Amino acid sequence: GPWLPRKKSSSILDIGCGEGVFLAFLSELGYGNLSGFDLSPENVQICHRRGLAFVQQHDALRLDEFQRTTEYDMVYCFDLLEHLPKERAVRFLHNVYLRIAKGGCAVFQTPNMGSILALFHRYHDLTHEYGVTESSAVTLLMTAGFREDCIEVRPSWNATTWLGYLREL
Length: 169
Prior knowledge:
- This protein is of the alpha/beta class.
- Helices cover 34% and strands 17% of the residues.
- It contains 6 helices and 5 strands; from the N terminus they run βαβαββαβααα.
- Strands 3-2-1-4-5 form a 5-stranded parallel sheet.
- Helix 2 links the parallel strand 2 (34-38) and strand 3.
- The longest helix has 14 residues, at 86-99.
């Protein structure tokens, strides 16, 4: 798939990894250079029970303090951005940008507030701080340092579809 590194030795970071479902999937595919963290100590314990002993408890807003000297070939951040305070989102994204190795990539997923299901996504989870549309996603990423020609927005993409495609590999 286009959003999986070609080399199994690629360094991969999952920010806000939750219960480690995606990291476990990557591990099953043979990726061995994995890192991940989540704010919730309960989620970290679940990750450890899954055999993902490398997962740490850490705050995404302090990404610059996580494994300070490490750059990653691939950074994943699913369904986290909309939970961050709006005024701190650009700094967070800039810190992600700084952690991407030359030739690397970052994949973000957030509910698309431009879709017909936007109201459900916006108000279903009261911890959502704001909504992101296609155009605001590009603006946020460019403000954080990402080049426009390197940004690809897939408005219909969602976790269920994504994981479904990955499992077909």
